[in-house]
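Curious: explain these tokens?
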Amino acid sequence: MKLSIKDLNLTYGNHTALQNVSFDLSSNKVYGLLGRNGAGKTSLLSIIASFREQTSGSITIDGEAPFENAKITQHITFMYNKDYKEESQKVKSLLYGAQRYRPNFDRDYAEYLVKRFKLDLKKPIKQFSKGMQSALNVCIGLASRSPITIFDEVYLGMDAPSRETFYKELLDDQERHPRIMILSTHLVSEMDYLFDEVIILNQGQILLQDDYDSLISKGAKIIGIKEDVDQFIHTKQLIHEEQLGNTKAATIYGELRDEERRNASEIGLEIAPLSLQELFVHLTKEDTDDETQQ
């Protein structure tokens, strides 16, 4: 399926949640959607899943608007941090309901996942712990095998071993049944290896969309004597800096040519790579976050 969003806006009264958002997803990849609290991630995903309609702009999936379009929405699964405190059904009934509305749902795989996460088939879902409820969401989301599958911080409450099981099953099933998979998360350092492509949303706008490897290659920390560092980075995009005495560490965003790397080495500068989490934090920081010592 091809997802295309153009000049999309969403407002709530006087608040703008999304502004001029445009991007395309056409490859069967795992996309990491990153953004600080309030950046608009859940609002964007809700529109993609047709849970709500945008204020203006357009969204099409295979050329059709998805809102109130059953032909399209049956191929989208949106799993989020749902509260099951009023849900008296048991797992078996919930899986049956999911199967009815999702044409690609694999019941055998769902039951396999339920066993993997050790979910009690006889207990009402409302009696599950938060982690078990999240694991159930994972089971439904993966087993749905929808061409567009969305997980919005679905791991909440899951312990580390359960999250590792989720990540392994996600990668294995994505290899067997490729689709557009969107993961919204704050656990960037834990989940970054899952991403083929990264989208960063900042204050309701798309900050960047890039392949994971390409994005990581654009971040670097330049460390050395202050004067040498300043001279080296003066034409670069500075996103963070720290200084202790006459030693400075400057974080930059942008490609470094091989010649520039050789020149840095010749004048005694160290170039250290950045993690996705470091890049994300520095690229989305606000002025009040900047505690740089001048």
Q: What stands out?
A: The CA atoms of residues 168 and 194 lie 9 Å apart. The domain at 218-289 is CATH 3.30.70.2020 (Alpha-Beta Plaits). Residues 160-176 form the longest helix (17 residues).
